[in-house]
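ok so I'm stuck.
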Amino acid sequence: MILNTDTQNTNKFYSPKVLKEKQMNATSTVLKEGSRGQEVVKLQEGLKKLNFYAGAIDGIFGAATKDAVIRFQRSHGLVADGIVGAKTWSKLNELLGNNMSKNKWRKMTPQQEVDEIKSLINSRMGVAALNQVALENFIGFDCTRRFYINDEFGGFQTLMRIKCSTPRGASSAIGYHEIRVTFNRFESNIENFEIERVSEETGAPKFELPE
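replied:
not stuck anymore, here's the structure
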């Protein structure tokens, strides 16, 4: 049971369904020949699981990956252009099913963490979230901070988790040992964030995160 969950935003908090719809026109998730990185790794792994790709999982979108994408798109009635946009991602996630959704949160790489911190301090909403975390005293040598990314939404949803060995919080009535801040983006802009506070006395958080 979670005692306290806050939402801070300039617009309303988007449900997963609405968030996916907003992402349909977001170009930053598009992959094509020449793309590189973790999202290409995810694409190659998904295509391999579905028996469309037999090449190396190297994070490089080359000719073999493009051919696999085209074959996948043709077999599922999509525009067979070899470009991975929102509709192709959606179909991949649908076919891979629970195997992906159960593990939608993953830890960021060190470089992704650096990029995430830069994104937060350069965003008004990001700074507001960091100020709230500091206000509740979730800082100090006995606190650890980790960042996560939600693969279900192609990187548009990220999470910062801070765990401390001693209770923290803005109120003296109850202390929390963990705080989670989920950031929701449209394209590269943080549109809103949600804070979840976790206490050992109140039970487990809403979902598990990998250690």
